[in-house]
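Retry 2 of 3 after timeout on previous attempt. Resubmitting structure tokens to design endpoint.
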């Protein structure tokens, strides 16, 4: 015999637990812990879990916990005695006070066991709670004994108190717990409901992130600055998505040209050939074949006039307008026509600053395909991301 614990236990709500489940929870998994039992003092309806009831509602009780190799003899000193079967759900079985960490660890193998729960003084514990709470010695005492044994029905071996009689009647009034098949079906439904709830939550979050309606799969996957256009003009975003790839490519080139026009970069001698190549469908010439070389050349050219522009949300008034335009040309050369159009439009919008609604209105006039939805331009809530090379290097 091994005495695992002998001392006092703080109880609340007249209960404590033995638990071997890995989540260490005390939730009875949707049915009463005493369901289908003859005894109401040691609930064993939840696999891997025991729910122990005391006479005292709140305070200190005496508790001894023992592990035996075989069935121990019954001591006549105990007024209440019940037995249940128990199989640990993991190698870690602990005694848990209510709302606290483990009191002790039993070190039981995950095999079938019999448990005897004995008590005395249950009625006195209920009646003399105030004295216990005020520092008096525990009135009710309990013994938990474990030993290896095959499964069997729960038993009321001895009953003397009104408290025990009440809980035994309660247990016998309960329907039996669900069968293993019913539990498996309930778990399947629970997991399906959880997956559906998670899917709904993801969809709701994505809907909010995309301005109130879900994007097409193509738009969701395109990357780049598609999300940056959401707070600027969601209708325009959808219209570009719905356009023919050839139209998207033309929009990209047009947006790059508009960005460079407003920034005063169109006639710069090393930039003009790149714009011409873009509009002719050719590959970009040097240095535009290497973004880093573009930026090196840009900041080394003291002929380029530097002007400031407000950020899209109006909170900053010192963005270098010419630097904001450069990503539009690089974006317009993207292989994917949808991404090219969206990224070039976003870069052109950043170049225009708070005047970006005029840019979008002009795009709708220029491209009939973009008039399929009513424009709803409004001040930006966020500036999005400029993408590679889209911000002025330090």
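Retry 2 succeeded. Sequence:
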């Amino acid at each position: 015999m091994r005495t695992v614990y002998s001392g006092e236990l703080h109880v609340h709500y007249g209960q404590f637990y033995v638990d071997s489940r890995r989540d260490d929870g005390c939730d009875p998994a949707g049915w009463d812990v005493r369901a289908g039992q003859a005894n109401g003092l040691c609930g064993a309806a939840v696999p891997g879990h025991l729910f122990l009831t005391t006479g005292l509602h709140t305070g200190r009780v005496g508790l001894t916990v023992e592990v035996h190799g075989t069935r121990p003899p019954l001591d006549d000193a105990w007024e209440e005695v019940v037995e249940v079967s128990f199989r640990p759900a993991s190698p870690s079985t602990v005694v848990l006070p209510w709302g606290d960490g483990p009191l002790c660890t039993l070190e039981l193998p995950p095999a079938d066991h019999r448990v005897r729960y004995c008590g005395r003084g249950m009625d006195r514990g209920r009646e003399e709670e105030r004295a216990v709470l005020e520092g008096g010695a525990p009135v009710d005492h309990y013994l938990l004994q474990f030993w290896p044994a095959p499964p069997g029905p729960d038993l009321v071996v001895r009953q003397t108190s009104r408290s025990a009689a009440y809980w035994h009647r309660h247990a016998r009034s309960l329907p039996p717990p669900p069968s293993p098949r019913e539990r498996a079906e309930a778990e399947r439904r629970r997991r399906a409901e959880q997956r559906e709830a998670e899917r709904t939550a993801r969809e709701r979050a994505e809907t909010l992130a995309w301005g109130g309606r879900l994007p097409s799969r193509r738009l969701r996957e395109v990357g780049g600055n598609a999300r940056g256009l959401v707070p600027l003009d969601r209708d325009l975003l959808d219209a570009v998505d719905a356009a023919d790839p050839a139209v998207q490519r033309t929009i990209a080139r047009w947006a790059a040209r508009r960005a460079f026009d407003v920034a005063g970069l169109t006639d710069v001698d090393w930039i003009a050939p790149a714009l011409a190549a873009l509009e002719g469908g050719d590959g970009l010439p040097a240095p535009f074949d290497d973004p880093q070389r573009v930026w090196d050349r840009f900041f080394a050219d003291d002929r380029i006039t530097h002007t400031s522009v407000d950020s899209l949300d109006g909170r900053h008034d010192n963005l270098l307008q010419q630097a904001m335009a450069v990503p539009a040309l690089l974006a317009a050369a993207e292989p994917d026509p949808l991404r090219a159009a969206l990224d070039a439009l976003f870069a052109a919008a950043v170049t225009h600053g708070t005047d970006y609604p005029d840019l979008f209105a002009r795009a709708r006039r220029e491209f009939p395909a973009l008039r399929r939805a009513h424009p709803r331009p409004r001040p930006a809530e966020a500036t999005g991301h400029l993408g590679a090379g889209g911000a002025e290097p330090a």
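Attempt log closed. The longest strand covers residues 2-11.
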